[in-house]
Amino acid sequence: MKFESMKGFRDFLPEEMAARREVFRRIERVVRRFGFREIDLPSLEEMKLFEVKSGEELVDQTYSFEDKGGRKVTLIPEQTPSRARLLASEKSLNQPVKWYSTSKRWRYEQTQRGRLREFYQTDVDIFGADSVESEAEILAVVVEIIDELEVSESVDVLVNDRKLLEEVLENKGIEDKRTVMETIDDREKMSKEEFFGELVDIGLGKDEAKKVEEIVSIKGKFGDKVREVEETVSEKNETLVRMKQLEEILESYGIADRVKLDMSIVRGLDYYTGLVFEVFDKGGELRAICGGGRYDELVELFGGQSIPAVGFAIGDVVIEELMRREGVWPEERLRTDVYVLPVSKDVRNRALDITKKLRDEGLVVETDLKDRNVSAQLNYANYIGAERVIIVGERDLKQGKITVKEMESGDEKLISLDEVVEKVK
Amino acid sequence: MKFESMKGFRDFLPEEMAARREVFRRIERVVRRFGFREIDLPSLEEMKLFEVKSGEELVDQTYSFEDKGGRKVTLIPEQTPSRARLLASEKSLNQPVKWYSTSKRWRYEQTQRGRLREFYQTDVDIFGADSVESEAEILAVVVEIIDELEVSESVDVLVNDRKLLEEVLENKGIEDKRTVMETIDDREKMSKEEFFGELVDIGLGKDEAKKVEEIVSIKGKFGDKVREVEETVSEKNETLVRMKQLEEILESYGIADRVKLDMSIVRGLDYYTGLVFEVFDKGGELRAICGGGRYDELVELFGGQSIPAVGFAIGDVVIEELMRREGVWPEERLRTDVYVLPVSKDVRNRALDITKKLRDEGLVVETDLKDRNVSAQLNYANYIGAERVIIVGERDLKQGKITVKEMESGDEKLISLDEVVEKVK
After folding, report:
1. Which of A15, A295, B231, B408 is the most buried (most CB within 10 A)?
2. What are the distances in angstroms from CA A131 to CA A312, B101, B204, B342?
3. Which of residues 339-358 of B touch A (CB under 8 A)?
């Protein structure tokens, strides 16, 4: 019988997992510096939790089933509903609540480029702050993550505000804003002509459709474009004032020129209530690397008080594609500080003693477990990426010495047994 | 509508997760020093993978269901079958293969003390080595983990060898070894009298039952008890020679007196082929904290070549119970290096600038996101466990200064703005 992992699921061997850990480590290091705290929530929740926010259609794309107790349950496709559930029940949390978590998510979808059935995702949220400062902080985290992953040259951080888009549409005399925004959200799947045709199909006059085209084409340096929009909307507009404040705070973070305004960013229809943003590769080849925004009405849906929220999620699948393409995916190799090589069974216990002492110093140390000869052991030491090999031989031992071999240079040195720990650590 | 997490599933708030992380970190630090490498495998596998090893009865206690493509799938209750699957398909791995992974497992069981439906487990295995050295290494890892978790005084590491038990039974003239071992495995659920009765019920004469009672009562210092068994079995017995070697190697690790021989340890019937061990709290109140052994025939079952294996697993539920009981569970609190406190909106950007600089130094820093007054901010700083608060006020700023408040002592110092990073980091 032959067994395989299922389509859309991945096995990570040590070299692969070490690279992935390094990526998570860099993301989480940034997030922690900003004062976000790790939480952990169940992988399995009652299905009704996901129906609140997403409706039945999205739940259809999850791993949902009836458990042996007759409960309808879902392997979480995202963590936001669980966070909202927890916030609704934990009334004593001091706000702002700043949470992150890197864990697995599952979706029952056709697997394709950038989309798997099991993937890792880091979710980062601020709950309980409706300030523009909290939005700037979230954007600063995103920009720093991009820097840490060494892809800053290859991506655009595209920001919009749903309210601003609505107001601009209104100002331009577009009445059915909701349907128009739905169409804008579908825009990237269409050609320019199809998009125009679709706008006309949903009832816009050609002039109106042209105006919408103009609006969604606004894209460029954040500050410049905010001022461009200013000419369209009245200056007293609250959202615009907020966006100008956002620019000012981004300046303080030194990242105002790292963010673009893109009036075509909508991110679906329900859920988001203000700021929305996405990170795309400049080539436009890949799916969004990261996305988020403000969703002030969500927690209330889950039975809690009204709690404003802003956050984002970054998955491991698309960022890996991008980092590999850009040649910055961490090197996939094994690393070992020391391999201790007993040349024969007779010196095994002495070798073990050295092994133990070096491990006690915190070094990663392996030794022979298969009673192999010297050359087989050297091969293995090489395979596990040992930096140094300590050769424990009978003759050397009689003089109280062992040989330390530097694997990269091949240099060998005979040193006194008493000095091993001191010299090697 | 009110939502809750399901019975047997846990929500971990930041304080709780920080403590759990610390426990995982200590376990993994030990494991990594011994040269074990992290792997990661799917959480969902085809159900047939679990039927190979465990039979239908155990699969009944899993979360198994039919996915939307009609595949019977199982949320993994353990990682060993997946490891065997991977080993069977990856033919080019250099042996010994030393893997660990800390991840979630699921069981559909009645929840009770020490048993939840979702739990974390660290699995540690050496594949490809049948040596007694590999068994000693696994035991050394277990003992060091116990030390790192500060529970060494409260637990017993109980070791046995299934082959030795079989040989001793044979030597004592017991014929139906399999049924007797099944009964021994159930022994802890019975009183002394019930156990004796059960042995008679399965067909042993009273003398034979007494002999079995004697054998399973052998429990004590590893070396002493091995010599006690020696008197029962012929000295040339291979397993006994191996156990004496094991003792010798454990001496080299300095842990021979940390391990007890306990002839009643069986660990179920199929699966294990030699060494078996369990870690129990000395009070005998809790379930096994950790268990493992040698299982040389498993990988072959999954279609691979024959690969010897020895390993163990440690879950998070029982170890937490024990560490809490012993008062050594890590403190559950939030920690923050610095809170930067702008006394008014006017100095917000200056505060942000300081915040950014300190974060760039790798410190965990928070600042105001809710436009709060000084006292509300100090409360929050206290809540997040800030070590220091930097108070940014207009008057101080005019002199190019800020105030640093040490939260524990309450001491305040006025320092120059230029020195902030230097003084605080």
Report:
1. A295
2. 16, 41, 78, 15
3. 348-349, 352-353, 356
